[in-house]
Amino acid sequence: MIVGKIQDLKTYYSVCPEFENIFDFVTEYFASPKADGSYELIADKLAANIATYTTGDAAIKNLEAHRRYADVQILLKGTERIDWAHISDCTEEISEEFSKGGDIGFYADPACVSSIALDAGTFVYLLPEDAHKPCVMTGDKGEEVTKVVFKIKL
Questions:
Q1: Per-residue pLDDT reduced to its tens digit, 128-153
Q2: Domain holding 52: CATH number?
Q3: How many structural domains is the chain composed of?
Q4: Per-residue buried b or exposed e for 28-62, using 16+ beta carbons within 10 Å of the residue's own CB
């Protein structure tokens, strides 16, 4: 997992070449916002999904993990918490998606879960070993946020 500000993406182009496309997309977004929806940036390799929603209580959400895709989640407006645990600590799978060939699995929280607070302009890069619980409120009540999630096929 990597966490940083949008301008830091340039530092990691050698780690993930798609970061250059992501940086360009987000820079364009701030200059001329796009509508919520899906955008294909590189066929069968990189897609962006913009969504506006209200953050919620962590107690009613589950950790998730992916096998074939990495996520780059960038908050465009508002604040949000993302909880994180290493996939090896997630022993209680509460879905059968992986066993059915899907790309997402859901897990109960293990004993140790860390939290990261994101504000507008902050990104998090999540790999298959990074179980994560996005869309969590940072305070006592939910907040409307806009976020773009990039899916990078591994």
A1: 999 999 999 999 999 999 999 999 99
A2: 2.60.120.370
A3: 1
A4: ebeeeeeeeeeeebeeeebbbebeeeebeebeebb
